[in-house]
Amino acid sequence: MRVRFVPGSGLLLWLALGVVVTIVALAAGMSVAAAHRLAGAWTAVLMAAALLDRHMTLAAWRAAEPRMTRALPGAFALGVPAHVRLELHVAGAQVWQLTVHDHADTTLRVTSMPVTMRAEGGGVIELIYTAVPTRRGELTFAPVDVRVRSRLGLLELFDRLGPHDTRRCYPDFAQITRYAWLAGDRRLTEIGIKTYQRRGEGTDFKELAEYRIGDSLRHIDWKATLWHNKPIVRQYQDERDQCVILLLDCGRRMRADDREHGIGTSHFDQVLNAAMLLSYVALKHGDAVGAMTFGTPPGEERWVPPRKGAHTLNALMSELYSVQPTPSHSDYLTAAQGLLRRQRKRALVVLVTNFRDEDASELGQALELLRTRHLVLTASLRELIVKELLQQGVDSLDSAIEVASAYLYEQARRDAFHRLAARDSLVIDAEPQRLGIELVNRYRAVKKAGLI
To answer: What domains can you pick out in the chain, each with its CATH number?
Structure first.
């Protein structure tokens, strides 16, 4: 890469000094011609010094064989601070005055950059800075920008060191990690997930166990009881090998954003967190999980066929991590038809959208079509801003209009949602931060009831 030079503070200072000397000389009575010759000579000397400085600096910098390496995490998580380490290797015995700036992705919030330092040759200079992703998707890191003070201080050398790097930024799945810890410790209620204490109930045989008070008498295995000479009952578990399909709306309605701190709290980000949490739970129950997006421009929808096993969660993350809501209209009927073509086996279809009263007719038709083959759970998001408007005080005409409009909007939406719920009890209306817990609770209830 070509090395560039720009005038440094030293050269500008000497030029300013020459201007001052020329002005003083003119004020003292020097002729204009003589002042012109003085300024020309001063400029020629500075140009010669700058060329010499450039030659010396460039030769010394190339002899130092500067090399920059960058250590990045394997992946980034939305809103989670990550450390990036830079290492500058400089040979020789020269001492350099440097300013280093890493060209990180523009969607990263970077602290401690740029850095000005004094670097001694023959060693390794290590820099560590913090980067916080504010958007999911691909992150790019261009070569590092290094500005070097020249040997005589007249110029500044600009060089680009290091490689081009790319990393993926995924949603923050700390909620899934916490759920796994809680599940291992049987403390699911700490995050609001309900447990169902129905010992021995289910549809798939699990094991034989000794009878305990509260067990159903109809589950007694008489042959095993005679063999062991004590009451033995059959225990069952929720049916496994079933299928869950996540049908995720990516249209303009999902662009709603209640974020307060600017990172990772948009509606669609929280939808992905909830979808991954439900996927984790369903996979732990032995079910297959798949996903389909809609509300995107033609040809840009994503389809992940349902699969089982721990690797399925990684496949879902790899396919959905970069999906962003679009300004497109969400065609519910087309999405339902597309899902029916792709998924013929009966499944629990979890439709996540942002419901409006004007969507009632089209959404109702799509749900009726899906119910011809699948069990459908419809989840809709509520905007926090509407709740805040309803709770605000009325102290002016503008605030009165805002509150009245919020009440009208909320009433129309609630009436339409109640009409939708009257035709199907499997509906959820939740604020974004509660969506994951509500989905898991309803999924577990559906499994216990044997509805799939």
So the answer is: 1-170 (2.60.40.10), 174-179+187-195+239-449 (3.40.50.410)
